[in-house]
Amino acid sequence: MSYPILLVLHLLAAIAFVGTVFFEVLILERVRRHVPGDALRTVERALGQRLRRVMPWVILTLFGSGLGMLKLRYLPLLAHPLDSPFATLLSLKLLLAASVLCHFLCAMYLMHSGGMTGRRSRAIHYSVFAHVLGIVLLAKGMFYLSW
Which domain holds residue 125? Predict the structure, then answer.
């Protein structure tokens, strides 16, 4: 697959993933205070079902296209990650992305094993939110920061 196609797939998947995390943390979390419990549980159940169907594909596209771009263009930079600002920021972005993937896998395990609690869910969401903010800033910084 060509680099431009991988880039578009990566950007679209990133928009979907970051948008979902943004919605869950900054919108849905605040709506909870204003919606009756029964209605909120119905909405959360429906959202959860939809997200469990869609997000694995979004994650697969996001990481698959990212790895494809890495292989086609950026892999040699990782041999010496401190040699350039771009390589350093890319390395940091990859570490955060790996952590997000671990969060996602942990959340999936907790959901399937019955160990997911409201507190754990919120902690995972806030952590992933902080990670994706860092990833977005690093992604932009890779092309504009130098030292």
Answer: 3-144
